[in-house]
Amino acid sequence: MPYLNLFDEISSIGEKFLKSTDRGHKVLKKYAWQLGSINELIKHTHSLVIEKLEAIEGTTDMSEAQQIINSLSGGPLSDSFRVNGLCDIFVGYGVSLRKIVESDSGNNEKEAPPLSAEEENHWIYFCDALEERELQVANLYSNEIQEIGDLVWNAQNINDLEELKERARRAKYILTDQMADFNSLSKKFHKQLGRSI
Question: Among 16, 39, 96, 124, which lies 20 to 30 A Cα-Cα from 89?
Fold first, then answer.
């Protein structure tokens, strides 16, 4: 992959959290369920977007392809997430996962998570997006997945259906690779949770 985006950063941070829980970090062990579930949520939202990209690949009509592309912009994609019942889930995970990196002066057992200041900023930004419900999460796709952003912004200027399909294919590969990473992380966190019960 030629660049790192926020989804890749969150996956990398998840790996760091996982290694920390393996070493017995009490605070992070407490969040093993949420950390596993957030990976499931990302995998699920990626699958919704991948379905649209596959629909672009399968179309034989330029106007239909452009309609599907329009469904990948913030508002329509947000509507898709809402229809799939993700609103309150996004908010709940954002609130819960923010606590991992925020200081808690009343908890003497609190240890700093194994993150750099930049990684903490990525994590907090991601929590902010989750707490803003589905619209911000939808915007992450066009902002953070370059090929999807290109599809949405350039749809009106591209007259070649095969070019649109190729861009959709590249975007799908990015999401598919990330989805595999998040699926693996989810399984590891749920395994960690089983060991800590």
Answer: 16
Is 93 part of a structural domain of the chain?
yes
Residue 47 lies in a domain: yes
Quick check: 110 and 103 in contact, CB under 8 A? yes
Could you list the residue range(s) of the whole structural domain that residue 145 is in? Answer: 17-104+112-196
Q: Which two tokens stand for residue 138?
A: 């939808």
The per-residue pLDDT for range 36-47, each reduced to its tens digit, is 999 999 999 999
Of 87, 109, 140, 121, the C-alpha closest to 26 is 109
Residue with tokens 């989805």: 179
Q: Nearest 5°: CA angle at 182, between 80 and 167?
A: 60
Digit-coded pLDDT (tens) for 110-151? 555 678 889 999 999 999 999 998 999 999 998 888 888 888
